[in-house]
Amino acid sequence: MDDAATPDPAAREPAREPAREPAREPEEAPVELLTLRDGLPDVVVDAAGLAAACAAIAAGSGPVAIDAERASGYRYSARAYLVQLRREGAGTVLVDPIAFDDLAPLQEVLVGTEWVLHAATQDLPCLREVGLEPTSLFDTELAGRLLGHPRVGLATLTEQLLGRRLRKEHSAQDWSRRPLPEPWLEYAALDVEALVELRDVLAEELREAGKDEWARQEFDALLGHTAPVRVDAWRRTSGMHKVRGRRGLAAVRALWTTRDEIAAQRDVTPSRLIPDASIVAAAQTMPQDRRSLLDTPGFHGRGAQRYSGRWVEALREAAELDEDALPPRSPRTDGPPLPRAWAERDPVAARRLALARSALAGLSERVAVPTENLMTPDVVRRVLWEPPVEREPEALARAVDAAVTALGARPWQSDLVTPVLVDAVLEADAAPPEPDPETPTP
């Protein structure tokens, strides 16, 4: 072949540009770490220090940020082992409540001020225990829920709304320890450092969203909050579903109760004696002597051997109970049955619940409030299981409003949810009955 007829590769291929690196996404600026503006204060441990702290808070202005640290996971009690406060013009105050019989002088200067807390229901019981009771409050976690923020932890809200990162590495420490290490105290002080600032941002968002009145009603309701009393708390034993028979349940109850008594006496969290898994293992095999108990696979824990006599005694008592003294498989309750049983026990009630749940999901999306904050599921189930007898729409609406209000719903909740429940009742009644599968179709 003639060389002149051979195409030149360089002539038929376009000139190649140097390889380029792929475009990089612009890096986000690092989030600023939240730090203490005024340094770390000394912990208040005596009357003179408390008097000075009270004078400083009284001279300050605006809301007071308040938080408390407990020793969950270490102690049986839920008492406060540190109380943190911050107010404009007063700075941050750290109080050791263990050093005082009560904090009455602090309560006196706090009367009439707005408390700013995050997840108030967690801290209010232990603050009341040391004599601190709010007359007005703002809950930043609850405000975040009402505004539809997908994550409402303090660190997340602080970062998203204030642009500062909050350290959380000491959240699960044993706050009953004395003396408290300085890094722990700094962590505790940071929890109230920006809390009032966060409150101001959330309050403005609530006003812009038209939800400030909803929040006011919720915060007022929190003033009367008390921790619920758990009935048959032993039924919350993890893994209890593996235990067969009512006598096995009696063993779980006996072991749980014994463990709770020892834990309360020693002021240690119950799981530090024996874990739930050990209770379940012993209830499954029912050993009746110390050696057999300690040889039971899965029975372990710091208090397994030390209190082995108490565990055996509990198991023997369960084994000797009369049949009529054994606990029922399902807990007794004054409320409606579990939703999964509704279709069999009352198909119309089941339709009511299904219709209401679907409508509440849509309402939740429209107003950007979680369904459980629109109205607690227990209130919804109680009203729909046994709804008012009225069926004229306006009369039914008044009756439903009265029912949910009596169960603790706030006015804003009833205004939104009562129409949903009324529609569910009327629509379920009007729906044709589902065909009986035993009846042949003509």
Give structural notes.
With 442 residues, the chain is α/β, with parallel strands linked by helices. It has helices at 9-12, 47-59, 104-110, 120-129, 140-146, 154-162, 182-193, 195-209, 212-222, 245-266, 276-285, 290-294, 308-320, 342-345, 347-367, 371-374, 377-385, 393-406, 411-430; strands spanning 32-33, 43-44, 61-69, 82-88, 91-95, 115-117, 137-139, 164-165. It folds into three domains: 32-222, Nucleotidyltransferase, domain 5, CATH 3.30.420.10; 234-325, DNA polymerase, domain 1, CATH 1.10.150.80; 339-430, HRDC domain (DNA polymerase, domain 1). The strands form two sheets. It has a six-stranded mixed β-sheet, with helices on both faces. It has a two-stranded parallel sheet with strand order 1-8.
What does the main sheet amount to?
A: 6 strands, mixed
Mean pLDDT figure = 91
- Beta-strand content bin: 5-15%
Secondary structure class reads: alpha/beta
Name given to the CATH homologous superfamily of the largest domain: Ribonuclease H-like superfamily/Ribonuclease H
Shape-level CATH architecture of the largest domain: 2-Layer Sandwich
| Poorly predicted tracts of residues | 1-20
SSE string? HEEHEEEHEHEHHEHHHHHHHHHHHHH
User: CATH class of the largest domain, please?
Assistant: Alpha Beta
Total DSSP helices: 19
And the CATH topology of the largest domain? Nucleotidyltransferase, domain 5
What separation lies between the terminal Cα atoms? Answer: 89 Å
Q: How are the strands ordered across the major sheet?
A: 2-5-4-3-6-7
Summarize the amount of helix as a percent range. Answer: 40-55%
Shape: flat
Radius of gyration: 30 Å
User: How many domains would you count in the coordinates?
Assistant: 3
Q: Got a strand count?
A: 8
Biased composition (Basic and acidic residues): 10-27
Domain HRDC: 245-325
Biased composition (Pro residues): 328-339
Protein name: Ribonuclease D
